[in-house]
Every structure is written in C-alpha cells, then in structure tokens.
Amino acid sequence: MLKSLTTGDVARACQVSQATVLNWIRDRGLNAYMTPGGHFRIQAADLNSFAARYHMPVDWRAVGLAPDEVATP
To answer: How many CA within 13 A on the CB side of residue 68?
Structure first.
C-alpha cells in the first residue's frame, strides 16, 4: 500500500522541524511530489530509503504505520 506523508508527518516521525524536512527535499534528495496546491507529499517507502541512507531512525507509529507496513530499501 502506498502511503503519502505530509512534511508535518515526516517531521513528527523523524523528530525534526518541518523546515528540516523541506531542506531534505530541496538539498538532500528526499523524493517528494508537489500537490496542485503547492504542498509536498512524501511516499513512506521514499522516506524509508532516505532514512536508511542516513542511518536515521523513524518512528512509524507517529504517522499511524507499523514498521512492517513500510517497504524496506
């Protein structure tokens, strides 16, 4: 199942600010798409790959997902 996350969701799951998530999208290669309203959305699998690349923990339960629901990189 593909789950789209907001920048707020990602910030909560990674315990960082939304500004940091925007920096990751713009400068660090976190894959995201933009909605027609101009908001970014991140696929859970893309966040999982990004977190693995940087050896970063993600609290999937903070965004309503169990760790086994997210595809491994």
So the answer is: 0
> Domain with 47 in it: what CATH number?
1.10.1660.10
User: What span, in angstroms and rounded, lies between the C-alpha atoms of 45 and 50?
Assistant: 9
What pLDDT digit, counting tens, does each position of 5-59 carry? 999 999 999 999 999 999 999 999 999 999 999 999 999 999 999 999 999 999 9
Distance CA 2, CA 15 (A): 22
Q: Which two tokens stand for residue 22?
A: 């925007």
Q: How many CB atoms lie within 10 A of CB 29?
A: 11
| pTM beyond 0.85 | yes
Please give the tally of structural domains in the chain. Answer: 1
Find the domain containing 38 and state its range: 4-69
